[in-house]
Design a protein that fits this description.
By secondary structure, the protein is mainly α. It has one domain (3-88): DNA polymerase, domain 1. Helices cover 70% and strands 0% of the residues. The chain contains 5 helices and no strands. It has helices spanning 3-18, 23-36, 42-52, 56-64, 74-88. The chain is globular and about 40 Å long. 16% of the residues are buried.
């Protein structure tokens, strides 16, 4: 992948993180993307991109601990949830 393609991919993932369809997910995934995407390797970006393909109605309970997540996303979702809780000063989820 060229540098231009990689930059375009990061830009697209940032946009998809901030424009989810529900404000709650915008506020969870947008800041996470801002803080972490640039440092992710190709495999981590592939997983994150797959996660973005999931419905917000599924993602929110997975991230907040309200429902069990698919095993392939478990580590990433735990990281996103911890990041969101640290930003918002909450201890739930």
């Amino acid at each position: 992948m060229s540098d231009e393609q990689a930059a375009d991919r990061l830009k697209r993932l940032h946009m998809r993180s901030w424009r989810r369809g529900t404000k709650e997910m915008d506020l969870i995934l947008g800041p996470y993307a801002d803080a972490h995407l640039a440092a992710m390797g190709p495999e981590a970006l592939d997983l994150y991109e797959a996660l973005l393909g999931e419905n917000d109605q599924d993602l929110y309970p997975w991230i907040t601990g309200g429902a069990a997540s698919p095993a392939r996303f478990a580590t990433l979702l735990a990281e996103i949830g911890a990041f969101a809780r640290s930003r918002h000063g909450t201890t739930t989820g």
